[in-house]
Amino acid sequence: MVNKTHPIRRICCIGAGYVGGPTMAMIAKQCPDIDVRVVDINEHRIAQWNSDTLPIYEPGLTEIVQQCRGKNLTFTTAVEESIRNADMVFISVNTPTKTFGVGAGRAANLEFVEKCARQIADVSEGHKIVVEKSTLPVRTAEAVKRILSNSNNNATFDVLSNPEFLAEGTAIEDLLDPDRVLIGGESPDAIQALVDVYARWVPRERLLTTNLWSSELSKLTANAFLAQRVSSINAISALCEATEADVDEVAAAIGSDSRIGPKFLKASVGFGGSCFQKDILNLVYLCEYFGLPEVAEYWEQVVKMNDFQKKRFVTRMVRTMFNTVSDKKIAIWGFAFKKDTNDTRESASIYVCRDLLLEKARLCIYDPRVGEQQIRQELEYVFAEADGELSDSKRRLIHDHVTVAVSCEEAAEQAHAVALLTEWDEFAKLDFAKVLDSMKKPAFLFDGRNKLKNLDLAKKGFEYYGIGF
Ligand SMILES: NC(=O)C1=CN([C@@H]2O[C@H](COP(=O)(O)OP(=O)(O)OC[C@H]3O[C@@H](n4cnc5c(N)ncnc54)[C@H](O)[C@@H]3O)[C@@H](O)[C@H]2O)C=CC1
Ligand SMILES: O=C(O)[C@H]1O[C@H](OP(=O)(O)OP(=O)(O)OC[C@H]2O[C@@H](n3ccc(=O)[nH]c3=O)[C@H](O)[C@@H]2O)[C@H](O)[C@@H](O)[C@@H]1O
């Protein structure tokens, strides 16, 4: 159906999530001659993509979607038809950590990727390029190729790996001006076809081409290195608190060494997000699988340090508040895993809230982009048993001890403490005299992002504690 060296005219992306949606919107914007179809089995999500309120919050995304939707960008549940008509099919489905069976808690669950590959094999005709956009364990393309080789209609395929490096909250900036786009593959024609798509707006020298396995492994490695930097500075933050050093000063001092660099050295209550932990655990699993237990242990420490940092934050709160937070009202400012996103997956807030609830604190949670239902779902999920069931006692604990506020001020009203857990800019713009006035005294403020550090809140009457000083 498609000549191997033809330019790409029709793209189908399976998975309308945080990656599929923005990535395809950017391709549609930059390539008006390419018809881009984003498909998903989740009807609700597709309906949201077709509405005025997109399923994900990402600065700049709505404008691009509105510009292209109805022209060369379509969101649809017509999965098979869209695959059949495409020259190039991106697989951008979720690859969560396995929760059952072999590799549970570590390996990536590739069920959804495999289903996509089977569906592509079933419905395709002629020749197609299949692009792995999801983050996958190294050597996954081998399995994808084997599945595709059993096509119903003798279709032929090239498989490429094109991992995505965007960060949430800055997805549009990252897609518009990426440090690099990585394309791994075996067929020079297929690689060139994808290079030609990105070359419409990304300078050629930033389009890196590698073999399949390097590309797959580079994605896991990039996330592992990034997360390692956060865990490293967080480890140092604990030492700073014990020694009167200031972690932000240490970060600035080491970051000005050009070999270290200043980015990703912000100490925090711990990294969150759907990928860092998942991808490192996946790397750990792979290392164990390939008989490299020392390498596995080395990387696992990054996740352990992150867990320690979240626990340490709660322990410090409890100790500071006279060793008990039972029945104390604590305002939680921020539930998303970072600012400028509505994503709460693996957010440090979830774990801080869980541990405070186990101490029987009363939580009043506010996040500018996360609604009550999502907050309650995350808390129910974190308290669920291994079989996914929530016990009555835990349901009651959440029900009786959690309220959700519509503003920071409301959350802080009559609170014994505030815990700032997401670095939303609006938190630094509050009238802190008013906040102080409304709180119980001493008014404790635990800043898990050092967001308010420069506001001299200690001088203004708060008992102010940050990270790493
Ligand atoms: N969230 C992020 O910032 C980044 C994520 N990634 C990777 O990209 C991949 C996707 O991540 P997200 O977009 O965050 O996931 P997501 O969970 O937001 O979206 C995945 C979508 O795929 C759909 N889906 C699953 N199976 C399907 C099937 N058989 N047919 C049609 N639709 C199907 C789901 O319904 C869901 O809407 C993951 O591998 C992730 O590790 C990579 C870079 C950044
Ligand atoms: O594969 C992925 O999913 C993506 O994961 C991260 O992106 P993301 O998780 O969206 O956001 P980051 O900006 O990396 O932040 C991750 C977490 O680390 C925390 N963080 C980050 C940087 C820092 O200095 N300190 C710190 O605590 C953030 O608050 C957040 O909780 C990577 O930055 C992306 O390149 C990658 O594509």
TrEMBL record:
InterPro entries: 6-PGluconate_DH-like_C_sf, NAD(P)-bd_dom_sf, UDP-Glc/GDP-Man, UDP-Glc/GDP-Man_DH_C, UDP-Glc/GDP-Man_DH_C_sf, UDP-Glc/GDP-Man_DH_dimer, UDP-Glc/GDP-Man_DH_N, UDPglc_DH_euk. The keyword 4Fe-4S does not apply. GO terms for molecular function: NAD binding; UDP-glucose 6-dehydrogenase activity. Pathway: Nucleotide-sugar biosynthesis; UDP-alpha-D-glucuronate biosynthesis; UDP-alpha-D-glucuronate from UDP-alpha-D-glucose: step 1/1. It catalyses: UDP-alpha-D-glucose + 2 NAD(+) + H2O = UDP-alpha-D-glucuronate + 2 NADH + 3 H(+). NAD(+) binds at residues 15-20, 40, 45, 93-97, 134-135, 168, 275-278, 345. Pfam families: UDPG_MGDP_dh, UDPG_MGDP_dh_C, UDPG_MGDP_dh_N. Its EC number is 1.1.1.22. The active site is at C275. Substrate binds at residues 164-168, 219-223, 259, 266-272, 337-338, 449. Residues 331-454 form the UDP-glucose/GDP-mannose dehydrogenase C-terminal domain. GO terms for biological process: UDP-glucuronate biosynthetic process. Keywords: NAD, Oxidoreductase. The keyword Lyase does not apply. Gene3D superfamilies: Cytochrome c1, transmembrane anchor, C-terminal, NAD(P)-binding Rossmann-like Domain. Belongs to the UDP-glucose/GDP-mannose dehydrogenase family. Catalyzes the conversion of UDP-glucose into UDP-glucuronate, one of the precursors of teichuronic acid. This is UDP-glucose 6-dehydrogenase.
